[in-house]
Amino acid sequence: MNELLATCIREPGNELISAECENLTGGKPDRDGVALCRTLEHVHKAAYVRAGIQRLAGGRGETLDRLVKEIAEMTFGAEDFRIEFLRLSERIQVRQYEAIIAVANAIDASPNLDAPRHRFLLAVQDDGLWFGEILTEADGSYVRHTAKPYRTSSSLPSRLSRALVNLVVPPARTILDLCCGTGSILFEAQAIGVTAYGVDWNPRMVGMSRKNLAHFGYAANVELADAREWSRTADALVTDLPYGRRLKMDGQIVRGILAHATRLAPVAVYVAGSDISNWLREGGYRDIEVFRVSKGARFTRYVHRARSCSWQGGSEAGRTGPRDCG
Q: Which of the following CATH numbers is that of domain 141-308: 3.40.50.1820, 1.10.8.1000, 3.10.20.600, 3.40.50.150?
């Protein structure tokens, strides 16, 4: 069997979870948050993907008795192991302790609960049980960025910012943030080894962003400029657009940014307070995807990922070129 799986958090109203998982692993999570993957190489930097697992036994329709029998007949490295339990459904009634003991007794090796060399996972899903070895986990490095010294009421949460970057990385190796604010997106890009450049036309924001980056030891590639006149290009653009109470003014600004930004990167991720797909099309974007991220019942962020039809440069992120630009 030896399939590669990823387990993701389950958060109703957050469509970004599936999109991040697909870009990082090549697999989309099912309703239980489990994805069949092509790779686990990038799981460590994830925001919403919890772990990468190699499934060794079990699956659809599997019962505990059959799973235990299958494991007992297998040969695999397991010395100094520990078994962890993940219940993703209440449909199949399995007692956690009894199930772990039954599986442990089927493994021809000695356990070591305090310092395991092998960590196994026994998972209960809606349609069956499966067993696998945990190969990698998200390192949660975005968490430390919640302690940034300078912020505003509209600053993006660190976890969300990491997920936004993960929509284009891989393959992007450089990104632009044209409305960088206090630097939330820049932190996350630099934390995973991506070169990031920030722009803001508010001197106060530029100052806060630079101080925040310095606080965490990141290069402060932030400049005071109007995004509609910026000329630096990159593999991808990731930005939280200005939106809020001044909707009419913000609309004019956003349209200007979008029209100009199509020439700066082949692919872009924009966060807005509403679906701006029409503005993206007018500005020269195609292949538009929208992911809603709800924050309670009162507020929803709309995350857009789109490809530019005006991009003329070459980059890793845009090597296949834009689609649907006719």
A: 3.40.50.150
